[in-house]
Amino acid sequence: MNGDNDKLSQTFAALANSTRRAILARLVEGEATVNELAEPFNMSLPAISKHIKVLERAGLITRGQKAQYRPCTINVTPLREISRWTEQYRPIWEARFDRMDEYISQISSKESDNE
Fold this sequence. Notes:
Layout: H1 3-15, H2 18-28, H3 34-38, H4 45-57, E1 61-63, E2 72-74, H5 77-87, H6 90-114
Antiparallel strand pairs: 1-2
Helix pairs in contact: 1-4, 1-5
């Protein structure tokens, strides 16, 4: 597996957990400390710290150094990589949706004819 795919796998694995997705959603609003990130969850600080470390290893967040605390910030680069990867499948999805629309139209037409 090449480095790009391995990085993509790490990103998807990090995003597979709802707590980590919620942490990222909070960081979209701006940087936050571990305590601030832990606030909405019924979890211990060590448990939140483990989630943060997973996000950090995947490159989804960075930790700064401001005085005596290390605020977390979101890094959108891995999310852009996911977007680029998924974009290659857009033509397939659109073609399937077009076929589904045609099928629904056919069914609707048949139902109208039967009424």
